[in-house]
Amino acid sequence: MCLIFGCHFVFSQSNNQVVENGEIKVEVSDSDPEKFNGLFVGLSAGVEGGSNKIVGYQTEAIYFYKNKFNFKVSVFSPLMKSFDNNRSVYDRLDFERNGNPIYTFNKTEVGQCYYFLKKNVLKVLRFNPDWNSNFVRVVYRAEFPVQRRRGFRVGLCHQQQSLMWGAYLVDRENFYFPVYASSLSKNSVYIGISAGTFRHMKLKIRDHDPELNAKARNLYADILIDLTSKVNYFSYYPYSIYKPTTPSIPLKTGLGYRVGYECVFNTSVNHLAVKISVEVGSDMAKGIKVLGPEVNSAVLTYLPDSLKRFPVYFSAKLGLFYFKWSRT
Fold first, then answer.
1. 20 pLDDT exceeds 70?
2. Which residues of 163-200 are buried (b: 16+ CB within 10 A; e: fewer)?
3. Beta carbons within 10 angstroms of residue 14's beta carbon
4. Using alpha carbons only, how large is the chain's radius of gyration in Å?
5. Which candidate, 57, 67, 154, 142, places its Cα nearest to that of 107?
6. Section 91-97 average pLDDT
7. Burial of 71 per CB tally in 10 Å (0-12, 13-18, 19+)
8. What CATH code is carried by the domain that includes residue 101?
9. pLDDT one-digit tens code per residue, 206-250
10. 160-213, pLDDT tens digit by residue?
């Protein structure tokens, strides 16, 4: 991509360039999208928000096997405890811990995407990285095949984080100031679909050596099915009136969703690639509640305070990857 958007200041044109409709046709070689396969290993920085606010990093490995499937492993963690909002609040306030641990945010995923539909289409790319002798931008045109792949995704996801709770009566109008803290852990399986486009080619601009131009874009949607879900280790503020007594509470399994977009493309530096990803979905704490004692003929309910109005999460990440193409 740096090849496409970078500037090469050249002030003369070679005589062997093909000009069609005022555009210079770029020589394309090794244009086979099925060659987009190999191992990508990298590190991303990003943010995630919802029932917790995280600034963290993600280590990730992705392996594309020909045009048949890809396999991915990823772990997202905060940069430090202070970049995990709920955990930092827990550490700052004087909670009665009673020796109980509290979780730092962690999300670990392992999954595969199987491509069941492949189709090649011809694409045209126009760009203008050069100036001619009259200081006018020169328009280049490249024609190349792109492969569209439709896939089926399946994988496992483990999530854990600390939660801040508020104590509410059934009507949720009365709030008791004492805040409660706990850890929430979930193990889920996700099932979904994906739609991606892949290209792999070499472009030769003017008298420069051919440079690799490869890119994969993917749009996906998943349904998450909870296998296990548990609230652990209630801790409370010292002045709490109504104190939860159950140390570990299994929750009903539930359903979640997420949609996302990710793009991996090479740079002009050999064996380096950039990945951009964004994702939106239902928060891992959505729909959970813990019942407490009866107060004034009403049952006290503990709810994650940050999810009263907006029970979804979002994430955005930018990373640098090392890639090694497989032999074809």
1. no
2. bbbbbbbeeeeeebebbbbbbbbbbbebebebebbbbb
3. 9
4. 26
5. 57
6. 69
7. middle
8. 2.40.128
9. 777 777 888 899 999 999 998 988 887 666 665 555 555 555 666
10. 988 877 666 554 455 544 457 778 888 999 999 999 999 888 888 777 777 788
| Beta-carbon contacts of residue 92 (< 8 Å; ≥ 6 apart) | none
Q: Cα(210)–Cα(19) distance, rounded to whole angstroms?
A: 19
Task: Tell me which residue range forms the domain holding 186.
Answer: 2-325
pTM attached to this predicted model:
0.81
Which token pair is 15? Answer: 């005589």
The partner residues of 3 in beta bridges, in order of sequence, read none
Pull the structure tokens for residue 80.
């430090």
Please tell me what DSSP assigns to residue 93: S
From the list 182, 219, 173, 178, the residue with the least C-alpha distance to 198 is 219
Inter-residue contact 178 to 237 (CB < 8 Å): yes
Share of the chain above pLDDT 70, in %: 69
Alpha helix segments (H runs only) across the chain: 2-5, 85-92
pLDDT at 58: 96
Domain count, the chain: 1
Number of H helices and E strands in the chain, helices first, is 2, 16
- Nearest Cα to Cα of residue 76 among 101, 105, 53: 105
Phi, psi of 87 (to 5 degrees): -65, -40
- Confidence check: pLDDT of 136 > 70: no
Q: What is the DSSP string of 112-160?
A: EEEEEEEEEEEEEEEEEEEE-TTS-EEEEEEEEEEEEEEEEEEEEEEEE
